[in-house]
Amino acid sequence: MSYRLDLDDIQGNVVRAYGKYSYPFARYFFLNISDPAKGRAFVGEVSKRVTTAARWPTPEARPRCTLNIGFTFFGLFRLEVPTRTLQALPEEFIAGMKDRAFLLGDRDQTMTEDQADRQNWDGHWDPIWQRNRRGDGYDDDNVHIWISLNALRDITPEHTLDGKPDPKLTRMDPVPELEETTQWLRDLCAANGGVRILPGNGQDGSADFHAAQAVFDRFGDVWLPTPKEHFGFTDGIGDPIFAGQLPEKDEKEAVIGRGKRMGKGWEPLNPGEFILGHPDESQELPPTAKPPEFMRNGSFMAYRKLHENIGSFREVIATEAERYARVQGILPDEAQVTLRARMVGRWPDGIPLAHAPTFSDWQKARTENGLDDPNPLKAYENQIAYIKSTRSSDFRYADDMKGYSTPPGAHMRRVNTRDYLDPLNAPEGDNPQATTALNKRRRIMRRGLPYGALPSDQQTDKTEQGVTMMIICASLFRQFEFIQQQWIQYGLDFHQGNDTCPILGNHDKHRRMALPADPQGGGCPYTMSQLKTVVECRGGDYFFIPSITALRMLTMGVIDPT
């Protein structure tokens, strides 16, 4: 019998990736509390609308606009959470993301903190995040509360598939409830008087919320949201599955490739890796502050706005592909798409290199999975079905220790090492019993959507586009920060030395990525040497996502740590 979670007490964004449930529009608000009593009253009003993780019996039962809420350390401090509780919170959460910039690779790691501050290291961040945490908890510029709204798409039944009305086909417009909820939030802040929405979002600082939406593409005469981000990669496929997250009938299949690979096959991860108050993979309860009911069913979130330098990325691909095509004796178009796939670990449509290591393998796999169907709407539906299936996630790395199929330094291998780090693995990969035992404590859940609405041919390094990344886990230090520091900004576990992740890494000094080649396959090794930093953090912070019970405790001001 599957583990049972109190889903009515857990916020919905912890369990669900809304974008996968047809919520392609989002708005993120950041608020400051000036009066503790009014702040608690505000939390009480908002908590009445919070979307929980309770399962929806039918698609029609989904809320048309979801709402979730989180708090920074200073937000909890401003709401007068008892000192004893605050002191027992994790050190990294108390310090905040800006204070951890050196560890995360968000500022020059060759400079001291004073040197970096003198050079205004966060000058490229959005104004709201430049001002955040420059003073104490009472500072008017500090971010105390995060509120997210995710909206459904407007239904347009006049669209058809194969000549029949298909309600799944939609326009690019969000449902009216998004505007209504936005106005409700603004009116609530105005009436409350002790909580205000902070301006400063975006590079020009003009917006009072950060807007995100799926990348839409045209299929025939219909615009539909795609699972891609602005570099053109299919994203959000490999999120972990933990016990109690899904109904038991769905868990058995969903866990394949997305849970933990143990001696008996794929199993769901223990919920304590993501939700506080439940057993984790060490068979212990994650550390929490007192009282335990305040943190039980809560989680931590790293909110990061990641800007994508589209122009730099295109330059890297164009420059490297010209040389790669000559070295490998292939056409330029094949060289470009192959390099993109080898940097990430998947082909642009989501097919993993582990299943289709060569261009010809990929073409064959596309046909087998209907991704090249001549009907564009059919091809779209087939791709959505593919990335939801186990075919996109059921693979290993222990049978590819030298990285002939998926390069060891590829983005996917870095953020989810699967069975690659099993201590019994030999360099030749002759351990078919390899497990994910050393990886299962480093898993994270990714939430969020792309941002930026300019057409791709108008995007440059200076235009606004990227990914709004929200990483949810029980331990920011052990999970998110470890991956960011040790696996993204450093490469020793992948035999890459100081070479960083080709996508998320900082490439001011380390610009290489080695691409091994199977000597039996006729190709030759290649080293990319012109990498540039193509993803830059534009700011963010660490948040606590409390349970519904904890929201009530905050509202009433009754948190007894004794």
Instruction: Tell me the Rg in angstroms.
Output: 23 Å
Helix proportion = 25-40%
Round the mean pLDDT to the nearest integer and report it.
93
Low-confidence stretches: none
- State which percent range the strand residues make up: 15-25%
Largest sheet: 5 strands, antiparallel
Number of helical stretches of at least 4 residues: 18
Question: First CA to last CA: what distance?
Answer: 36 Å
What does this structure look like?
By secondary structure, this protein is α+β, with helices and mostly antiparallel strands. It is 28% helix and 17% strand. Strand 12 and strand 13 (265-267) form a beta hairpin. Helix 2 (36-47) packs antiparallel against helix 18 (548-556). The longest helix is centred in the middle third of the chain and has 19 residues, at 310-328. The protein is globular, with a radius of gyration of 23 Å. It starts with 11 loop residues before the first helix and ends in a 6-residue tail after the last helix.
Descriptors:
562 residues, alpha+beta, five-stranded antiparallel beta sheet, 18 helices, globular
Question: Which helices and strands, and how do they pair?
Answer:
Elements: H1 12-15, E1 25-33, H2 36-47, E2 65-71, H3 73-78, H4 83-87, H5 91-95, H6 101-104, H7 113-118, H8 127-131, E3 145-151, E4 153-155, E5 160-161, E6 164-165, E7 170-174, H9 177-192, E8 195-197, E9 210-213, E10 216-219, E11 222-225, H10 248-254, E12 260-262, E13 265-267, H11 292-295, E14 299-308, H12 310-328, H13 332-344, H14 359-368, H15 376-388, H16 411-415, E15 445-447, E16 450-451, E17 466-473, H17 476-488, E18 513-515, E19 526-528, E20 535-545, H18 548-556
Antiparallel strand pairs: 1-3, 1-8, 1-9, 2-3, 4-7, 5-6, 10-11, 12-13, 14-17, 14-20, 15-17, 16-17, 18-19
